[in-house]
Design a protein that fits this description.
- It is built from four helices and seven strands; from the N terminus they run ααβββααββββ.
- The longest helix is centred in the middle third of the chain and has 45 residues.
- A four-stranded antiparallel beta sheet has the order 4-5-6-7. A three-stranded antiparallel beta sheet has the order 1-2-3, sandwiched between helices.
- 40% of the residues lie in helices and 23% in strands.
- The radius of gyration is 28 Å and the shape is elongated.
- It has 188 residues and is of the alpha+beta class.
Amino acid sequence: GTGQAGARMLAEGHRLEVGETSRVGQCIAQGKARIALEAGEEAMRFDNPLLPHTRSELALPLVSRERPIGAMTIQSVEAHAFTTQDIVALQLMADQLSNAIETATLYARTREALRATQALYETSRALSSVRSKVATLHAVLDGLSRQPGCVYAMLFRMDQSSGSFELLGDVWRGEVHNRRKDGSLYTE
């Protein structure tokens, strides 16, 4: 959003329902532009107290791969502010914005998948060369800590005879801890 009204709506987490009576909700639901050249006289009107002087409003869908991903809305204090040429030019801009959003989203997903795969590969390499239980524990916990979003992980061993679990080690924000049977920490 632009201006004071846009900044305030962003700060307040402003939301509109898809398909409701607002032009933005309708344009997303229908996947096509919605326009009001004299906004105050139309039945479908989302009265935003932060934009009290809106007279013309244009809502354009942001469409990627034939599915709506959002909308762009432009308001004017003038009645009949948007010409056919304005609508075409602004829809082209909305289409380019859709492509940019989709490209950024795909890039972020690809990077996240690469990070996860790389962490698994490095863990596999580390496990192939370990020679002790403690080194195995370290390799597994270190690998878990490298997974995207991991803040804390624990590794347990089940005692078959009692059905209880023994905490072998944990990792907190990349720092691996091993546990002795008495519960104290140690590192190798």
